[in-house]
Design goal:
The chain is an alpha+beta fold and about 140 residues long. The protein has helices at about 1-15, 20-25, 25-30, 65-75, 85-105; strands at about 55, 75-80, 105-110, 115-120. Strands 1-2-4-3 form a four-stranded mixed β-sheet, covered by helices on one side. It comes from Allisonella histaminiformans.
Length: about 140
């Protein structure tokens, strides 16, 4: 009887379409796993570019040094004119501002005998390749 069932099954298989489950190779699934779609990161929001500002400060006394440091701390480029000050007061202002420049990772450049350029960390300054002047400003200590 099992021979009869086997031959009937064979005849039935010849005239009927195979099931989809019979056509799927199970070992194929093990070799190639479907990759889940990854989420693509969206575009970053555009940074608003703030126009760079320059502040020119002419201190009248040592008490104006705080205004210089506050402007630098706000990320502004500061031009300091020390021409109308006594050399000792100008030296004290330069010392105070120099400490703030160090703490804020800013930079300081001497433009001429009585003018300083203070720039925050985000601003890069390049100078011409000419040799700097050998003249010492009045407010610098004599060596």
């Amino acid at each position: 009887m099992s021979l009869f069932k086997g031959s009937m099954q064979w005849i039935r298989d010849q005239f009927t379409a195979p099931d989809e489950d019979d056509l799927i190779d199970e070992s194929y699934d093990d070799l190639y796993e479907e990759e889940e779609p990854t989420k693509q990161a969206g575009a970053l929001p555009a940074r608003s570019v703030r126009p760079q500002e320059l502040v020119i400060i002419t201190p009248g006394s040592y008490h104006d040094a705080k205004a210089i440091v506050n402007a630098l701390q706000q990320g502004l480029v500061v031009f300091v004119c020390l021409g109308n000050l006594d050399s000792t007061i100008a030296a004290r202002i330069v010392d105070f501002v120099g400490g703030a420049v160090y703490l804020l990772h800013a930079s300081i450049q001497l433009m001429n005998e009585d003018t300083l350029l203070l720039t925050p960390e985000s601003v890069s300054i390049t100078t011409d390749p000419l040799a700097p002047s050998d003249a010492f400003p009045q407010w610098r200590a004599k060596l």
